[in-house]
Amino acid sequence: MDDVIQIDDQWYYAAGSQKTDSRNQVLKQGDTFAVLDLLGDISRTGLGEQGVYHLGTRHLSHWELLINDRRPMLLNSTMKEDNSVLMVELTTPDIHQGDRLLLPKGQLHASRSIIIEGAILYENLKLTNYSNAPLEFNIKYHYAADFRDIFEVRGNHRSQRGSMLPVEVNCDSAILKYRGLDQIERSTEIDVQGKEQTVSDKEANIHIELEPGESDTLRTIVACQNDQIPITKRSHQQAIQQVSNFIDQFNQERTRIETSNEQFNDWINRSTSDLMMLTSETPHGPYPYAGVPWFSTPFGRDAIITALQTLWIHPQLSKGVLNFLAATQATELDPVAESEPGKIFHEIREGEMAALGEIPFRRYYGTVDATPLFVILAAHYYWRTGDLEFLEKIWTNIKRAIAWIDSYGDPDRDGFLEYMRQNEHGLKQQGWKDSDDSVFHADGKNAEGAIALSEVQGYVYAAKNRAADLAEIFGEKEWASQLRAEAIDLKRKFNERFWVDTIGTFAIALDGDKNPCAVRNSNAGHLLYTGIVEEQYVKRVAETLMDEDTFNGWGIRTISRGELRYNPMSYHNGSIWPHDTALCGAGLSRYGYQTECTRLLAGMFDVSCFLEWHRLPELFCGFDRISGHAPTLYPVACAPQAWAAGSVFMLLQSCLGLKFYSHLSEIRFENPMLPPAIQWISIKNLRMGEATIDCTLRRHPRDVGMNVDRKEGNVKIVLVS
Q1: Can you give the pLDDT at residue 6?
Q2: Fewer Cβ in 10 A, N or C end of the chain?
Q3: Statement: residue 83 has pLDDT above 80
């Protein structure tokens, strides 16, 4: 009997079969990732996002292991702590043929080890007979490849597609092929190594005989290829070693953190592993892809914020991000791609639809904030590392970014950076809250015309101040003075035009007629982070961020409860994003609100404790926190997501008041605080230039003390309390 039946276009599990829950397991390496169910399969039920994807195309849309034509029973499904290997432990139910018991339950153990390396999924299936009698059975792999672009999988309709080509079947392999409308031939080679096997265009059958206590291992590879990029096949063990080498290098470079709280350590370790998995090696250095499944590709804004979050523990990641962004900075006008000289891109997509222009994201520049954030990251990278040689290499790119802000970014020359999409296929909203309905007035009406987002003005303010710092280093003192004067003028005009006294915070934006969108919003925390808020408004902004309408006990709502479009289940109008909360925490810390910052860290920690693997998702719903109950998850949030994984590190740094001044060879802890759940925190391998320190900070009733456990090289450690 089939475990799964089809009725019309829907698939259902038959009653009596084991149905796993809807959770997925994720593997990623480079430009290839897999979304599998807990059994290690790509099933025909669920939301339809499962598959093996390579360069924006789903190369495997069905992958199902059967034992004597039955789905095995799940015993355990675990990801290695570093996210490199998925291990699935299985057995079988009683399997009958008529009245005859062919395979007793719990006698056969099947262990799947699955890893992705390069563009290949490797699976080892170890089968062990734990009965006292010989076992004879068949292993079957069902497979299919629909070669759908990831935007098709997400729901985009295409009027026509390319052509499926005849399947090439050999004695131990099948090659599924597709020629896209872009004339690229994509293929999926399924290679099964077994003793007695038959392979067809849809399945591979392997006959197995095991004596009592005997084991056998089947090895399968799924290779994703196109006719433009060659791939290298390895053994399963070689693939594991390749991934391990990358992880070892990542761990050698980064700072290591341990606390008194084991659950907090689990959160840190999971976040670190997620960042490793999402980071791809590029010709320009390491680069964190945004998230799986929908955003496993380079994004500008996401990578910059992830780099800012993790700069203190892993500066090499920031260097890779800056180098990549400098290499892809726009040099020409292209309204379709929304490209303008000096602008930093929003996202880069591979895949058939991007190549054909069916979506505008092949190299898409429709973002208003990535360009000033690029300048901010460059300055912070220099302060953290003192790497003047690299800064000199990208100095021209920094100057081009400032030039874009002053020219294309401000077409009406009112001093505010604004956006308006250049074609109907681009993003309507081009800040980080990029849902179509995310910028609106207090009466619920959409903001129309060229939009000047509040937090973006803060980014510009910080970018000009930081560019001025760098200009002085390079001897361009006149330009530095000009930049500082422009920043002062922007701060004055911003506080005059954006402050809305009746809501106790800054408008989320000005519309095309320069009318403020008087809506309470989380972006005000970003403003604190940049330093653009005048002292007279800081207290009220902090109070509004931390009141019960905005801070729900878990994190900061994107839009405060009570606003007309508030919806805790929406993407951007009342949900909670961990990276957003982390930036708010950094902003509060900047102005001395350490207690409030520790509350945000404690809230996010509590969220992680309710989630499997302590993995924070892209976002979750903004419902009120109820004691003893978990937060409500957003159903299609990406997990893992890079800037969600980076949030713990930014919040920790902010609570510790940790700052770097490479030009002074100084590391400072200014008014550090720790939440009650953490009694001490150990920081090891914290580097500045050639110097390295290990230190421990301990929580006391009234303050936090610090011991320097090891110091090598020329660096000064300063504790200000």
Answers
A1: 43
A2: N
A3: yes
